[in-house]
Amino acid sequence: MHLSEGMDNPASQAEHIAQIAAASRGRFRVFGDMSWAKKKGWSLESFRELEEIANKASGFPGKLFLCQYPLASFSGMAAMMAVETHDYTIYKGVLMERPWSRKVMTIPN
Fold first, then answer.
1. Per the domain annotation, does 2 fall within a domain?
2. Which of 26, 47, 75, 103 is the most buried (most CB within 10 A)?
3. Is residue 108 assigned to a domain?
4. Domain around 90
């Protein structure tokens, strides 16, 4: 188990997680209450950047990233960003799969 207060920006946080993952054997899990990043003054764009980096990394077998966004602490925009950037969301104890694709769809004229 590794505990951290988090880094000051998404790139540093992603590198920090990558180093720990590289040193781990087999499966790797990250569980985090994202309030730490809010306390560090991260912008909504910074949260999204970290989530997108994590999404790329979590595509490998044996890796799981579980990010907690307490609704009492985050804005509706932040909550929607979290839902948009994750394939699965747990809300009120129910696991829900995202109903839309990540691929940007264009509507022909």
1. no
2. 47
3. no
4. 10-97
